[in-house]
Amino acid sequence: MEVRTLQYFLAVAEEQSFTRAAARCHVAQPAISQQIRSLERELGEALFERDSRSVRLTAAGEALMPHARTVSATVAAAKAEFAARSGLLAGTLSLGVADGVESSSLPALLGTFHRLYPGVTVHLVEGASAGLVPQVRQGSLDAVFVAVPPEGLDPGFGHRVLVRDEIVALVASDRPQAQQAALSLDELSAAPLITYGPDSGLHPRLRSAFEEAEVPFRPAYATNHVALQLELVAAGVGIALAAGGARGITGDPRITVVPVTPRIPYAKALVWRSGPHSSAPLRAMLELPPSASDALPVE
Fold first, then answer.
1. 143: number of CA atoms within 13 Å, CB side?
2. Which of 73, 125, 151, 198 is found 20 to 30 A from 41 (Cα to Cα)?
3. pTM, whole model, 2 decimals?
4. 193-195 and 239-243 beta bridge pairing
5. pLDDT, position 255
6. Which residues contact 258 (CB under 8 A, 6 or more apart)?
């Protein structure tokens, strides 16, 4: 079983097409097909279900995927390691980023990283926390910027906290609630609530806070886009619960930011899989001192 064959297998599985996999690997399609057939003969099972329209993994293919990813990542890490030893760190750093990253210290950290390692390509993948965390666990992303869940992170992850803040209420400035010093969860529950969707990392934090206070949590509108939350509030739809550090929530005369009581603190962190699988570019970024991004220490 050769590394190249496993990389061809990964390409077909991820592209769901022999044609696209061949283009991605810069080889002719018959070469890909031949390597996959050879691998199937070696393993004694079919790895793909093929028809005229699609290519899908069989149960055997699904079982091979994590092993193929591990081999591919190890080879990439070895290449990057020796590039680093020669002083020419190269390769790709794949990062998943959830909402609010623009208000964190990650852009500054990446700016420092780029100045030190211009040969590394940084691939940023946007998404919600619920979809990004499994990708770092599987190894398809090196690290992700997500909200830390109320129960904490999986012990198999390392993390560096980049944001600590709290949830605030966004109220239309012409509403009576805008004049209050703070809004309780009971008062918020009585109003139409606008807040993050279930795939957001902040949704569990909000739900947990309401459950602890024994107050119903019934969002009327769910969106992870704070700019849309602001427009819904300004349109008179209801009161929004948003991250206090979100950009754009201050300075709009239509909107008043009101503290929530009791406080609902949250943290957002850069999260990666612990262990020997970390790529050389990721290790290089994590070795940057916290002062490079004004971040809190690695935990």
1. 26
2. 73
3. 0.66
4. parallel
5. 96
6. 168, 169, 170, 171, 177, 178, 180, 181, 182, 183
